[in-house]
Amino acid sequence: MSEQTNVNGTPSTIERDAYGQITRYPSPKIRIQVADLVAQVSKNVDEHGNWNFGIQATSRGGRNGAALNWDCYAVGSDLHTGDFLAVIQIRQTRWNKYGNSSRKSYYLIGRNEDATAFAHCVESRTIHAAIADGRDVIRACQTWMFGTEYAKVLRQGDIALVPVRSPKGDKTDERAMSIGSSHGYSHLLICEEVHRNGSIYVLNPTLTHNPGTHSTLRAKGWHKVVTSNRAAQWDFSKVKID
Question: Strand 170-171 and strand 159-163: pairing?
């Protein structure tokens, strides 16, 4: 199966197999970009596991073992920044004398403003639905992450400001707060007014990333604060930064 895509502004053709995996990239350069990005992201692991691709372990003469592999499902550019992004599948295959089984996790991968790599786990059905419909897989994943059309989102890592016409809920006395991302309270939000109804609505916000990985974000008007969705991931492929 082949399709038209747009990578870094250049229309190209990619080909997929029956499972949706890319078998032909728009160019050898893009194939290398994806491989380099996967190699960089694979270093960002925690105590739950890592991305050591290939055969992990064998015993009993090779009759028991496991192997980790990856495949690419999408390449493209961030709608707002133009930065290169890819969607990959990390697949663990295990075997023993009774047969074999596979477990899979899917990630949107790219680089932050400071050139460090990130991996954000996304749901498989979003990916496969976008492929089946001929939609932009990267954008479909980002829309799923923030729960609204990605074109509307002002993003800083996995925290986003979504423009709204007016706030909901009760006004509070807050003017500054720490916003928790999936890795802790790392985003400082300063604004002129705050309303809460379970969600947070802010007026004229300034969002600063305390570690400094992401650029400061400033916006005018009312915005809803959104923390991105993150799909469940198998422990063999967990990563710790985004």
Answer: unpaired
User: Using one digit for the tens of pLDDT, what is the confidence trace for 75-84?
Assistant: 999 999 999 9
Neighbours of 227 (CB within 10 A): 18
Question: Which candidate, 123, 68, 64, places its Cα nearest to that of 95?
Answer: 64
Q: Can you give the pTM of this predicted structure?
A: 0.86
Q: Which pLDDT does position 158 carry in this prediction?
A: 86
Q: Are strands 200-203 and 176-181 parallel, antiparallel or unpaired?
A: unpaired
According to DSSP, the β-strands at 84-96 and 99-111 are antiparallel
Tokens 């550019």 correspond to 77
- CB-based contacts of 132, cutoff 8 Å, min separation 6: none
**Rounded Cα–Cα distance for residues 86 and 113 (Å):** 16
